[in-house]
Amino acid sequence: MSKHFRPWKIDETHLLPPSVEDYVAKDHLSRLIVCLVRESLDLSEIAGSYTSGLGQPPIDRQMMTGLLLHFYASGLYSSRRIARATVERADFMMMVAGDPPDFRTISDFRKRHLKALAALFVQELNLRKRRAW
């Protein structure tokens, strides 16, 4: 008698698309960072730097900030590696909600908001201490 294997359903289509939050576990670091960025961090300095109504709308500041915080916490610093991970790693695909920025956008955001991002790291660490995460 031969062994039966579960079928590999690589070509099967889904009736409904999955939620991007289903990509990672409930206790994953990326979810914590998303929660911090959405509910606790003060992003007013970053938001205040966008005053012109000209050109394309910028990528959401919460998403970009969360993305960079998560990458720094993961030890990744290269904009090209960050951009690659947003299409290869489930935790980063979840953070960008399936709409990844290119490496130049990531690099420009980091350069433009370097001072504000440094202050956000301090905010994040203080919040983690207070909440014992």
Task: Provide an overview of this structure.
- With 133 residues, the chain is mostly helical.
- 56% of the residues lie in helices and 0% in strands.
- It is built from 7 helices and no strands.
- The longest helix has 18 residues, at 114-131.
Any idea what the shape is?
globular
Order of helices and strands: HHHHHHH
Described by strand count, sense and barrel closure, the largest sheet is: none
The computed structural class is mainly alpha
Helix count, DSSP H or I runs of 4 or more residues: 7
**What is the residue-averaged pLDDT?**
86
First and last CA, distance:
52 Å
* Whole-angstrom Rg: 18 Å
- The helix content, as a percent range, equals 55-70%
Strand segment count: 0
Sheet-strand content, in percent, reads under 5%
The parts where pLDDT drops under 50 for at least 5 residues are: none
List the helices and strands and how they pair.
Elements: H1 29-39, H2 44-48, H3 61-74, H4 79-88, H5 90-95, H6 103-112, H7 114-131
Helix pairs in contact: 1-3, 4-6
Key features?
133 residues, mainly alpha, 56% helix
